[in-house]
Specification:
Layout: H1 8-22, H2 29-36, H3 50-76, H4 80-91, H5 97-107, H6 111-132, H7 139-155, H8 168-179
Length: 185
C-alpha cells in the first residue's frame, strides 16, 4: 500500500512557521522535512528548489494578507469603520502578524521581497483610501489618516506601553474613531 505524500501546503505552512520564528535563512529543506517527519525527497515533487518554496511562501502570505481579507470584508460588509477594522484584524491576526513582521525584516535585505512587500502594502493602503476617500475632500488629510492607521496596525504590538485606566483595546478603538471621525467643518 502506497503512503500518502506530504501535501504541498504542509511544506509552505512549515516554511512560514520557521520564517516567523527564525527568519528566511532558517527555512531549509532538511529542517522542514525533519519538522514534518518526512524525507526531503517529497519536497522536490512540488518545488524545484528552496527559492521556489520561498516564492510560494510569499504567494501564500500575499493571498492571505490581501485577497482573502478583501473577500471576507466584501462578504461581511458593514459600515466603513467596521470594514476597516475587520480588514486590520484579519491582516494582522495573531498567526499572521509574525509572518508579516518577518517579511518586513527580510525585505530590508532582499530587493525582490521588498518589492513584494511594497505591492502588498500598496494594496492595503488602497483599501483604506477607498474605504475612507469619500469622507475627506482633502487628499493630504486622507493620506495621513490612512498612513497613521496602517502604522498603528503594524507597529501596535511592537509598542510596549501601559494605558492607565484603559485597556489596549479601548485605546485602539478610540484611536480608530479619532483617525476616521468626520472632518471638522
Amino acid at each position: 500500500m502506497a503512503t500518502a505524500r506530504t501535501p504541498r501546503q504542509a511544506w509552505i505552512d512549515a516554511g512560514l512557521r520557521v520564517l516567523a520564528e527564525s527568519g528566511p535563512d532558517a527555512v531549509r529543506i532538511e529542517s522542514l522535512a525533519r519538522d514534518l517527519r518526512v524525507s526531503k525527497g517529497g519536497f522536490y515533487g512540488y518545488f524545484a528548489d528552496r527559492n521556489a518554496l520561498l516564492t510560494e511562501m510569499l504567494n501564500a502570505w500575499e493571498k492571505r494578507s490581501v485577497d482573502d481579507v478583501l473577500d471576507q470584508v466584501a462578504r461581511e460588509g458593514g459600515d466603513t469603520l467596521t470594514k476597516a477594522t475587520l480588514a486590520a484584524n484579519l491582516t494582522f491576526a495573531a498567526d499572521l502578524l509574525p509572518i508579516d513582521l518577518a517579511i518586513r525584516s527580510w525585505a530590508r535585505r532582499d530587493r525582490e521581497v521588498a518589492e513584494r512587500l511594497r505591492h502588498v502594502d500598496n494594496q492595503r493602503m488602497d483599501l483604506l483610501r477607498t474605504s475612507f476617500g469619500s469622507r475627506y475632500a482633502n487628499k493630504a488629510d486622507l493620506e495621513a489618516r490612512c498612513l497613521l492607521a496602517f502604522a498603528a496596525a503594524i507597529a501596535g504590538d511592537l509598542i510596549a506601553v501601559d494605558h492607565p485606566g484603559q485597556t489596549r483595546t479601548e485605546v485602539l478603538d478610540c484611536a480608530a474613531r479619532l483617525l476616521f471621525s468626520a472632518p471638522e467643518t
